[in-house]
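Quick question, first post here. What does this chain look like in 3D?
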Amino acid sequence: MSRNAWFAGSIVGFGLAFWSARDGAAQVPPPPAPGIDAPAPGVGLGLDRLSRRMSEAIRDLGEDITASMGQSPNGQFLARDAQELERAAGEWYASARNATDPYQLRRSFSGVDTSWHRLRDQLAAPGVAPPAVADEIRRVEQADAAIHQALNVNAYPPNIEAAPAPPSGLDETRRLAYSLAQRGEGLASTVQSSYGGNPGSANLVNDSAQVAQLADAFYESLNNPASPPQPEEVRQNFAQIIQRSNGLGISLDQNLMPPPVRTAWDAYTTVHNLLRANLNLVNATIDGLPPADAPIPANVPVGIPYNPNPTAQVGQWAEQLDRQVDELLANFAPTAGVVPEGREMLVDMTRLRDHTRDFRRDVAQGLDPTRLAYEFRDCDADWQRLARRVNRIARGRTGPNIQRVQQIGQTCEQIHRALGMPGYAPTIQPF
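> Answer (accepted):
Ran it through. Tokens below.
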């Protein structure tokens, strides 16, 4: 679903919150998010009822998993994941009902959305879920799709869930384009927050909005079942994004990016470069067209230098994450029994440790970014779940274990960003 109209209308001139506050104030206030005060056009249900509907469907799914699969360790994990996700879906609306920024509302929902798709992925794997849970899976899917529509959020990339192997070809392009659209929106929102109060920066605000619009339209162009895009058409469409992004990068460099803008820009350009490699547009010049066999001329300004090895630091981060989780487990386990949801947190930490060790072995094999992203999905889901529990329980408190959890989050976010993962890595901050 396109968000171009949103950009055109809105961008012109344990203790702990779900998402970090944005710095600065926008010159033009964003429009009200759809579904809060009234249902979005064509939806017929507000977010309050939709979030309740999704929570109830996930609750029923969890009960069916327990009844039909609860005797197996994997079934117990899946049932526990469904129970946590049920609560998270309800809490998401409670935390978002007073939101006025559509970007922050969509961003906060992405954690629930990503976790649902990972759970759906696991249930759809061959031989995992019995037919008895199929109806409840469909109910959750319908509620999730309705929230996507109410929030004006892009549909999840097709052919990603329960894939028996990492995506390739157009499927991998779609995965990366989905992430690019999310990060483009995040960049536009951050640029507006940081520069929107300065009339002299109107071009930066507008240019970032146009880049976000192009990224969103590019993702949509890949998902037309009536007219599947041809490879050369996809390359030419992305060449326009290269041109605009290069120009924006040059302008941002000239304005000495503040830290929030630098972080959003780095997140965007990481996926941008992964897409350039995916589409064989590594040597694209500033006009967006790939030269036949020549490198970029030395006198051509480049706003997005190409990184030939985007996963160079992932091995280091995986080792760091392994150490951090071990340290957290050693210090948290003795007191887990007296902490609310402590036993569940302990299970989440243990799963994150095991999946991190598997991921370290994958990195050591020298796998390409696409395969590494596929293998990191479990770690990413484990961290989403653990972060929600910590943010839920440790409000207003701090201490060594909270700091350890924060460090794990920073490492997970670095890996998440480098691999172009969909959604947003959650943050742990004072409530």
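Confidence is low (pLDDT under 50) at residues 4-45.
The chain has three domains: 19-151, 169-278, 314-418.
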